[in-house]
Amino acid sequence: MASTTPGASLRYGTAAGRWVIGATVLGSGIAFLDSTVVNVALPAISSDLHTGVHGLQWVVDAYLVTLSSFLLLGGSLGDLYGRRRVFVIGLVVFTAASLMCGLAPNTAALVAARAVQGLGAALLVPGSLAIISAVFRPEDRSTAISAWSGLGGVASAVGPFVGGWLITAVSWRLVFLINLPLAAIAVGIALRHVPETRDEEETVRRPDIPGAVIVAVGLGALAYGLIEAQPVAVAVGLAALVAFVVVERRRPHPLLPLEIFRSRQFVGANAATLAVYAALAGVTFLLVLLLQEALGYSPTMSGAALLPATVIMFLLSARMGRLSQRTGPRLPMTVGPLVVGLGLLLMGRVQPGTSYVDTVLPAVGVFGLGLAITVGPLTSAVLAAVEDRHLGVGSAFNNAVARAAGLLAVAVLPRVAGLTEVGNPTAFADGFPRAAVAGGVLCAVGAAVAWATIRTAVPVDATTAPALDHTCNHHCVHRDEAAA
After folding, report:
1. Phi/psi at 10 (nearest 5 deg)?
2. How many CA atoms lie within 13 A of 316 on its CB side?
3. Most exposed of 19, 319, 323, 366 (fewest Cβ within 10 Å)?
4. What would the pLDDT profile of 260-298 be if each residue is shown by its tens digit?
């Protein structure tokens, strides 16, 4: 079993390096793919467990609440107690929860298991890229990260199609149960081949568990209040988030150092993230339901419907990132969300009787182009706005904002669009265009915020700093993965 290493010394292209990349790709990929295929499985879950849109909202949001709440804590625990150790613990928790999901007898049990899955992912996801950053030599780190991201991108592209096939051929339960053998392989590789690393300078620090619990209470109460239309719960959630700020001010080692919010660009980039990723998560959550409920798509077909966006992201993201390095992030972060918003508006044209080529494909193509323009510059803008010592927490916070945006959108947008029941194709056809317009407006807001707050200069090279993880917020159609 590998022992703790004092520094980064692993070479890319060696057998040891390949084992590390394989373990981290497989481990984090399980979490990413699970989120991908759950959206595709929602109609099948609704039919089998006799639940409506309300129950499906909880299936998605229970995972996002715990994931958003504990991402920062997961990264901190890895730094303190060993990144490999926390990565493996996260895998075990996630896999046990996957078994619970696959065997869930009713919606309540599935929602509870999904919440545990989110906790496991919060331990697992930050550690995957943090391990690569910690063990590879600085001169090999960018190449290793690119390989990790590229392999994960392939998995994200194939995942919805394979997941749809599993749902059609066997059952939605297999989407969760297939995690068990994959996770067992990842744990075995990690324990045997991944060196243990930790932040040796933080030996006296203690994890900010109270801060993480307060965030979980706040986001959980908000999600409950918005889904269940309970104003008191919304008030409790907002009060808990205010209390989090008060608590963090008084802690010697806060989960979230509040000085990072002195940067106007950091605040603006995260506000833009909140708007844009809320639009993505909300509209794509409903799009998959629309395709299956109103247009008669099979799970396999609906899983493959967004595949062109992933291909566009894969082909153009690196080029757009290089362009952003020359122009600065302000222009692409303004143009990109507008293009994404246009793609979402085009999705509003998808109706019963329309063809994939005429309506879905053009919308998905514009959507993917907008994401390719937006993602790399967003990474640059966030990382350029924080000091080097806060790069990890800055990227983790932005990751958490993107996840929180998704959970809020999934809680609110169906009600705004009047989509409250599954099995009513007419209601979906009538309501989805309203959701698409709401998504377009949110993207326009994100573009305006970016134009007003983002600098043109790019003082940080995003290729050598930790990348952000904006996956699994909107049907996993892009991968700009992150170390939290």
Report:
1. -75, 140
2. 21
3. 319
4. 888 899 999 999 999 999 999 889 888 988 898 889 898
Cβ neighbours of residue 338 closer than 8 Å, sequence gap 6 or more? 370, 443, 444, 447
State the burial class of residue 16 (Cβ atoms within 10 Å of its Cβ: 0-12, 13-18, 19+).
middle
Tokens representing 12 are: 């890319």
Provide the b/e sequence for 438-475 (b: ≥16 CB within 10 Å). Answer: bbbebbbbbbebbbebbbeebebebbebbbbbbbbbbb
Give the number of residues written for the chain. Answer: 484
Please name the helix (run of DSSP H) or strand (run of DSSP E) that holds residue 297, with its range, or none.
none
Q: What is the pLDDT of residues 75-94, one digit of tens each?
A: 888 878 888 999 999 999 99
In the three-class reduction of DSSP (H, G, I as helix; E, B as strand; rest coil), residue 309 is classed as helix
Structure tokens that stand for 37 in this block: 């295929």
Placement of tokens 């409790």 in the chain: 236
Per DSSP, the chain holds a count of helices (H) and strands (E) of 16, 0
Residue appearing with tokens 């390096």: 17
Of 23, 17, 35, 1, the closest CA to residue 91 belongs to 23
For helices 231-250 and 209-228, angle between their N-to-C axes, nearest 10 degrees: 160
Scored b (16 or more CB within 10 A) or e, 95-124 reads bbbbebbbebeebeebbbbbbbbbbbbbbb
Residue range 304-350, pLDDT digits in tens: 888 888 888 878 877 777 777 777 888 999 999 999 999 999 999 99
Q: What are phi and psi of 145, to 5 degrees?
A: -65, -40
